[in-house]
Amino acid sequence: METKPKKKKKVFMEGAIPASFIGESIHKHQTKTTIGAHDIFLGQVRADEIDGKTVKAIEYTAYEEMAEEKLHDIRESAFEKFNLTCMHIYHSLGIVATGEICLFVFVSSPRRKEVFKAIEYLVERIKEEVPIFGKEFFEDESHQWKENK
Fold first, then answer.
1. What is the pTM of this model?
2. Are 22 and 103 within 8 A, CB to CB?
């Protein structure tokens, strides 16, 4: 029997990821009664001080096709490595102000230990491997490309 390749999920959202979107994502999982644990990572833009200037926003760009392909591969490897029921990954594009959410990773499993391990695995691989770039904008209107740490 031939298996169909899994459909790639839409990952990118324009602007900050709203709390209402995150809340709705959690709410939708209440009907999935085989799930015993969820874990969520929320990446938030910090007001870092760099060379005496404070970051006020980050503008995110990506090689979208390449990034979505890489995220699909990371997703699939996480499903193979961990006993997950479902997984959602969303990342902002465009300008996200300090204090706003730019990355939302949400995993679910029958067991809690799986979600803890999976969330760290996913976030580390996303940060290291996915071609998403951030340009930091400072309060004085200057800007620079962000180092991905």
1. 0.91
2. no
